[in-house]
Amino acid sequence: MAFRIRHISTRFALLLAAAAVVPLVAYGAVSLLSLQRGTRESVVAGNSNVATRAATEIGRYISNSATLLKALAAEVQDTGLDRVQQDRIVKKYVLQLHEFHEVTMFDEHGVPVVSSGAGHPRVDVPKDTLVSFDDVAMSPIRLDEDQLPTTTFAIRLMRLNQPAGWLVGEFSLEEMWRMVDQIRIGDHGFAMVVTPSGALVAHGDPDKKALVAQARSMSANALVQEMRGRTDRAPVSKEYKDEDGRSLLGVAASIAPLGWTVIVEQPTSEAYASATVLQRQLVVAISIALLGMVSVGYLFGRTFINPILKLKRATQGVASGQLATRVDIQTRDEFGDLGDAFNTMANRLVELQEDVKRQERQAMFGRVAAGLVHDLLHPIQNVGNNARLLMRDDADAEARAESGRIVDRELTTIKRFLDDLHNIVKPKPIERFAMDVNGAVAEIIESMRTEGERNGIAVEARYADGPLVIEGDRFALGRVFRNLVTNAIQATEAGGQVTVTTSRVGDRVEIRVTDTGSGIPPERLQSIFDEFVTTKRRGLGLGLAITKRIVEQLDGTIGVESAVGRGTSFTMRFPARDDRAAQAAAS
């Protein structure tokens, strides 16, 4: 019960905490989700802005270089220039534009006619083209002798709307690498440039620059796959894991004139670090608030429950018979009123208990007095009447002898009654001897037949075959049998029958006393063997109590079955003795 009360106080504290904290927790959960969503949108927007600016700068850088080569092509196509003038113009351009390592002009047959370099040209008429834009063909990127990225721009020369050759320039993309290297987001966010075929041409992470030299294909990258085939130029973001298993936030933006892609990658742990810190702080704050409210609620709950605990303990004390138990609740609320009501109830219970005890004593004294008068009045009257007859001079010897016998009989009855009273207080020990149950029952039947005939009731016996030997006291058992037969005669109307049956049931000897009397109500059967309980109008109700005590002292059992209007049956069972010594002693 104490555990349940503590559990109630705990639930009360949790209820208070829930009432106060659940809204806070709900608000915190919504705030966390909003924080996560807002942080992701903010980080994605920032990274997208970086990727878009980088793509714009790289695209402008490539377009400007191609524009310069187109301007040179327009100048050298002038029909008024000879080879020497064209050669001078080409060399001047290369000297002014450091990104161009070499510029060579080829005729329509692919033969070099003008070159900024000495000796055989390093470039050639393009046979494969990576991309074309603004009439400029761009070859695949390669690494030069200094392990720097290099590409080739080629412009078709026209004269009088007829092909007149090629102007081819070797262009260094080192500046693009520097631009990519300068793109840093946080401590671990880097950018890279990927061609439409998935070839890696630049990477801002120093530890991954070797991948460019290895011509690493990035086709498996989630963003590369996402960007492939897209026609719009809107940035794309995605969270994915790299080959090392790190969770990354990637943003991709398209380089407009080339179809290349700038990808900015950043570990999600770093990208969402601020949100994670805020989330952790919010969780800690909510946890502290919850713990505080639970503690306050628990303490308040204990204070609230304490009067109930006191009332519970006092109720248990009163239930166990401690009627002096009282409660002391020092509150000016309903609990205080309840405590006062409990104390008033306890005081009233004490008064009622005293009244009940007094009434029980009065009732007991009345029953004892009535029983004494009923059981002793007739024998005493007989003794007095016969004593007066003995004192008369005209009484003959036979009358005097009869009166003496009556006086002895009634005195024996009075003595037996007084012995019953004494046995209730202090039972006498019973001496056991081997005895034949059939013989003991036969003696009682013979002595009780006369009383049965006087009341118009047949008293019969049915004996089992063979001797039924038990260990018992013939006088004590005779008293038991006499009590049961007498009760049966008194409970049976004239014309009825009382039957005593003996039998052997397993290792027990059974004696059953059955009558055809009025029976005993079911509610009285539970207490039929208690002292001072009787179904008769008069008497102390000691007979069955003494009978049960004697039977149990002989290791036996006694039970009763009854039906109102049909009769009652008392059944006794005793351990049987089958050894020859007991059989011989009983005979």
Describe the structure.
This protein has 587 residues and is an alpha+beta fold. It has three domains: 1-309, Beta-Lactamase (2-Layer Sandwich), CATH 3.30.450.20; 326-419; 427-586, Histidine kinase-like ATPase, C-terminal domain (Heat Shock Protein 90, 2-Layer Sandwich). 52% of the residues lie in helices and 21% in strands. It has 14 helices and 20 strands. The chain has helices spanning 2-76, 83-96, 174-181, 210-213, 222-227, 268-271, 273-319, 334-391, 397-425, 437-454, 474-491, 522-525, 543-553, 580-586, and strands at 100-106, 112-115, 131-133, 136-138, 142-143, 149-159, 162-172, 184-185, 189-194, 200-203, 236-241, 247-255, 260-267, 433-436, 458-462, 469-472, 497-505, 508-515, 557-563, 567-575. The strands form four sheets. Strands 1, 2, 3, 4, 5, 6 and 7 form a seven-stranded antiparallel sheet that branches. Strands 8, 9, 10, 11, 12 and 13 form a six-stranded antiparallel sheet that branches. β8 (184-185) and β9 form a beta hairpin. The longest helix is centred in the first third of the chain and has 75 residues, at 2-76. It starts with a helix and ends with a helix.
Brief write-up:
With 587 residues, the chain is of the alpha+beta class. It is 52% helix and 21% strand.
Rounded mean pLDDT is: 80
- CATH-scheme architecture of the largest domain: 2-Layer Sandwich
Q: Which structural category do the helix and sheet elements fall into? A: alpha+beta
Strand runs, count: 20
- Overall tally of structural domains: 3
**Ends: how far apart?**
63 Å
Low-confidence stretches: 1-6
Give the CATH class of the largest domain. Answer: Alpha Beta
User: How many individual helices?
Assistant: 14
**Helical fraction:** 40-55%
Q: Assign the CATH superfamily of the largest domain.
A: PAS domain
The shape, in one word, is rod-shaped
